[in-house]
Amino acid sequence: MVDAERLRRPAKTALEALAVAVLYFAAGRLGLLGALGVEDVVVTPIWPPTGVAVAALLVYGVQVWPGIAAGAALVIASLTTLQPTALINITGNTLAPLCAVLLLRRVGFRLDITRLRDGLALVFLGALAAMLVSATMGVGGQLLTGDLASDDFWPLWLAWWVGDAMGVLLVTPLLLLLLAPTRPLAIGRWKERGCLFLVAVALVPLAADSPMSLLFLIFPLLIWAALRLRLFDSMVCALFASVLATFAANTETGAFMHMSNVEVMVKLQAFNGAAALTALLLSSLVTEQRATRRSVQQACDELAEVLDHLSAGEAMPEEAGWPGSDGNDGTRT
């Protein structure tokens, strides 16, 4: 039995790492569909593999890191032949999610993101801080090998860093929430969710494709989802809006007409960041308040039950006619 258990654990870890590699590669190919050019270098406004990597490490543990490295190698191999310099990118893409998970665990991050502190930790530690590693190693490697001019370092570094951070902010919460058990929605909320879906399908493409720059119309939709429904719904809306905005930026239509590549990237990333932060932080705040309200209500119900039992206990002697209930102490005279 012991030998079987020892064999089962490495096999399970290997299968999990293989699944992570496949998901990382699939997410990478999807992310490349929205690639943009900045300073003659192709970058992605949203890099979903970072979100997949952080979620996988949080759920399965840091032992699946070889799957991340293998997935990163497969993505690079699908674009060009693997060179020794590719090891720098693979290392950076592996170390950054590991740093994110270590930082999140250090502050007690919860996978269901039910507290505002969880949302803030994911933003500042998991995304903004940890992704400095991948951006610095990726762009720095190109600079050291002579593939990148020194004048182009900071624009590319900023685009790389924000793209990796957006992957964490938009993809990681969705994957974590898909695995977390949740309370079922009431029937009325399902109807409201359907209305939200219909409004999003109609409004988001209009806001993204309109030449009048109507992207701001998406934020009331995100606020509606955060206040009335759940974090999952608001994050789906944010990801949907970011994907359509990225498509409009790639085709230089709608709000991104007549702009240079740098201007397109700045405007797109500003919108993606604002949408992700609005959905994530507002939803986590509302979720925390709802949980606090339920805890207070439960405590009040338990206190009321205790008071009812105490009242019943005080009334029992009079109802049963115990000695002393008529003012006599029960002694013989």
From TrEMBL:
Question: InterPro entries annotated for this entry?
Answer: MASE1 (IPR007895)
> How does the protein associate with the membrane?
Multi-pass membrane protein
Q: Which organism is it from?
A: Streptomyces cavernicola
- Pfam families (UniProt xref): MASE1
Domain MASE1 stretches: 18-290
- Protein name according to UniProt: MASE1 domain-containing protein
Q: Which UniProt keywords apply?
A: Cell membrane, Membrane, Transmembrane, Transmembrane helix
Location(s) in or outside the cell: Cell membrane
Question: Does the entry feature the keyword Cell wall biogenesis/degradation, yes or no?
Answer: no
Where is it mostly found?
membrane
